[in-house]
Design goal:
Length: 283
């Protein structure tokens, strides 16, 4: 991840949480007091966001020492200490909630992604995220998806062309083919075409799209689309999306599609409990 981006996001998060200053900590804790703490996973999961948490404390005080005991992507059991922190007590207390918020959010995404990825083995289908991300946190959330073993879809609107139903209102007959032709005439970037029915899919196979997105189709419909694509020996990659979760993702992977995109990677995920505990002794 881009370090300048992390520093910017962390600075904004700290400013939001601190307001004009931590009244409680600044009133009770001497500026010279030093202490040590540890971050514990109170539920099993995949660790993600340690560098962001470290940046939180380092932003507050360059004297903070942040020691990781695991790396991002590690699967840890309940009760595992993932980092030890030592330094100014004020910095650790002020940064505690912001650091934990990042860790909880990113680790939850990584944990949910890993569960999806492992549920479709040994199929070679890729699990992808979508642009349904928290504004300004897209890079962090997509890093969490990669940490969990998933893959990233287009990062933004300029990365590739993706023709959805609302783009096609003005094209009339043969709109799928014409829309792809119109974009191919203006860019060399990849073009993905979304279809909602098997009839549309048959038309889309005649286009020069690089990928076809099968939206809200059943596994049986997707399997039929894969068979048709293979019969005509098309090289178009197939992607499915819409209502896919841990209960049905394996059925979709078994159809033979190359890609499964899941918008709920960020929103429907396991809630993790991660805490920061201070040692009894103060240095």
């Amino acid at each position: 991840m881009n370090q300048a981006y992390i520093k910017t996001i962390v600075a904004l998060a700290l400013a939001e949480d601190m307001g004009r200053g931590d009244i409680t900590t600044n009133s009770l804790i001497p500026a010279s007091l030093e202490t040590q703490a540890r971050i514990i996973f109170k539920s099993a999961g995949i660790v993600c966001g340690l560098n962001v948490a470290q940046c939180v404390f380092k932003t507050l005080s360059r004297r903070v020492k942040f020691q990781k005991t695991v790396a991002d992507g590690s699967r840890v059991k309940k009760g595992k200490f993932i980092a030890f922190i030592k330094g100014p007590a004020r910095a650790i207390l002020i940064g505690e909630r912001v650091a934990l918020n990042f860790l909880i959010h990113l680790s939850a995404i990584a944990t949910h992604t890993r569960a999806l990825v492992e549920s479709i083995k040994p199929y070679k289908t890729k699990i992808l995220d979508t642009r349904k991300t928290t504004p300004l946190l897209r890079s962090l959330e997509r890093y969490a998806v990669r940490t969990g073993g998933g893959h990233n879809h287009r990062f933004d609107l300029s990365t590739m062309a993706m023709i959805k139903d609302n783009h096609l209102k003005t094209f009339g007959n043969d709109r799928l083919v014409k829309a792809v032709q119109a974009i191919k005439a203006k860019t060399k970037k990849l073009v993905e075409l979304e279809v909602g029915t098997l009839r549309e899919f048959q038309q889309a196979l005649n286009s020069k799209a690089d990928m076809i997105l099968l939206d809200n189709m059943t596994p049986a419909q997707v399997r039929r689309a894969v068979i048709w694509r293979n019969q005509v020996k098309s090289r178009i990659l197939l992607e499915v999306s819409g209502g896919i979760n841990l209960d049905n993702v394996r059925a979709y992977a078994a159809t033979g599609v190359e890609r499964i995109s899941i918008g709920s990677l960020r929103t429907s995920r396991q809630v993790l409990d991660i805490s920061l505990n201070f040692y009894d002794e103060i240095h």
